[in-house]
Design goal:
alpha/beta, four-stranded mixed beta sheet, elongated, 2 domains, two-stranded antiparallel sheet, Rossmann fold
């Protein structure tokens, strides 16, 4: 036990004092925040401020569609109406699209009132869906024009077409009704997944590289004179894990201090308001520790079988695949956090460290599922440690050749 603690202390102090720890502690939250802000900005600004020309033989209909497009405050369309348009004018508009002085031409064919058609021409391979509310504006404009044709006044038509807003509410486990955070849930889920997955991957790979470096430099031969291989592995896991907990604690303290600033008050109110529950705050470090223990144990065993850092590269898929799986299931969880796929992702040990906290921010997760997720993770960690400790015990003293699968199986049988 004493040797294990000494090794853990050495690993902890060595990494805490390193420049990489200091840079990542500051840079990672800033990078994730900047990435989310940039993505949100692009999503808000994409396809806005477009210059569109509406071509139709029905000037009244074109005017109604133009009015609907102008009222779309998010798209900020600049709309010109050419109605009616001669063949020469239509050709000129096509030339403007090719010259990029016009983003697109919406041609409305109303010759058959019972079956109105429209085409949209642009340089983009994307269709009308890339232009936000263009389809909705066309439909509303056509309906409004038909109402006016039936003798309904413009005021009455506007009242009939007025949008009915939907307020999203969410029930908690006690049956109380609260407001849903809307798009902030998506941002928070992505943020939590990134803040969990990136440190787990980085520290797991860092530990694997450290094992390979010490193995190559023959430091292990000296350390094994005073400590058992299992003590070395356990000490490294404890030391590097403590570094991760320290980094998370710094982030939590920094976030708490940031919450009291005027900038946070402006960001956390309005349409995008991000709030964290006590349960998320409690289980975040729990899943970090468990996720780190699982993946570090995996990489420790794999690193012991490698001769160089280049050999370790062939095992990178072990870290990347669970992250891709978690990112892939995230849209499913956002759509239905209580679906079978969502529950399976939060119970499967390979993805649960990344997905459970994100799911907790979307819905009330039953306590038995949280408990089952933790238990399955602990059992997976125990099984991986059993295998990795045996590979580690033999592999750290193996030099000169790569371990084959039959040799690895023989290592597992060693007592």
């Amino acid at each position: 036990m004493r040797n294990m603690l000494l090794i853990a202390k050495r690993e902890y102090l060595e990494q805490i004092r390193g420049r990489a720890f200091k840079i990542s502690t500051i840079a990672l939250p800033l990078l994730v925040g900047a990435l989310l802000a940039f993505t949100s900005y692009l999503g808000h600004k994409a396809n806005t401020g477009r210059h569109i020309a509406i071509v139709s033989d029905d000037a009244s209909l074109a005017a109604q569609v133009r009015q609907q497009m102008i009222e779309d405050r998010d798209a900020h369309y600049d709309v010109n109406v050419v109605a009616p348009a001669s063949p020469a004018q239509r050709e000129d508009l096509q030339d403007q699209v090719r010259a990029k002085t016009l983003d697109g031409v919406l041609l409305i064919d109303s010759s058959n009132p019972q079956k109105m058609t429209a085409t949209f021409t642009s340089l983009s391979v994307a269709d009308v869906s890339a232009y936000g509310g263009l389809q909705n504006a066309l439909n509303r404009g056509a309906i409004n024009e038909r109402m006016l044709g039936k003798g309904i006044s413009e005021t009455e038509a506007g009242t009939m077409l007025a949008k009915v807003p939907i307020e999203a509410l969410q029930l908690d486990k006690n049956g109380k009704v609260g407001k849903s955070t809307g798009s902030a849930t998506v941002i928070k889920a992505t943020l939590m997944l990134l803040l969990l997955s990136i440190p787990i991957m980085l520290y797991g790979l860092d530990m694997a590289r450290a094992i390979i470096e010490e193995k190559t430099s023959r430091i292990f031969e000296v350390m094994l004179a005073v400590a058992k291989p299992t003590d070395l592995l356990a000490g490294k896991l404890l030391g590097v894990g403590a570094v991760g907990i320290t980094q998370i604690a710094i982030w939590v303290v920094g976030a708490a201090a940031f919450m009291g600033t005027p900038l946070a008050a402006a960001l956390l109110t309005g349409d995008i308001a991000i709030h964290f529950s006590w349960a998320e705050g409690i289980f975040f470090p729990v899943y970090f520790v468990l996720g780190f223990a699982l993946f570090s144990a995996i990489f420790s065993g794999l690193a012991a079988t490698c001769e160089t850092s280049q050999d370790l590269q062939k095992f990178m898929w072990v870290a990347i695949v669970p992250l891709y799986m978690s990112m892939g299931i995230l849209p499913v969880m956002i759509g239905d956090p209580n679906s079978a796929w969502s529950v399976a992702a939060t119970l499967f040990p390979i993805t649960s460290p990344y997905t459970m906290i994100s799911r907790m921010g979307m819905a009330v997760v039953p306590l038995w599922q949280i408990g089952a997720s933790v238990v399955l993770l602990v059992l997976a960690i125990w099984g991986v440690l059993w295998i990795s400790s045996r590979l580690y015990r033999v592999g750290i003293l193996m030099y000169g050749k790569r371990a084959t699968l039959p040799e690895l199986l023989r290592w597992l049988r060693y007592s």
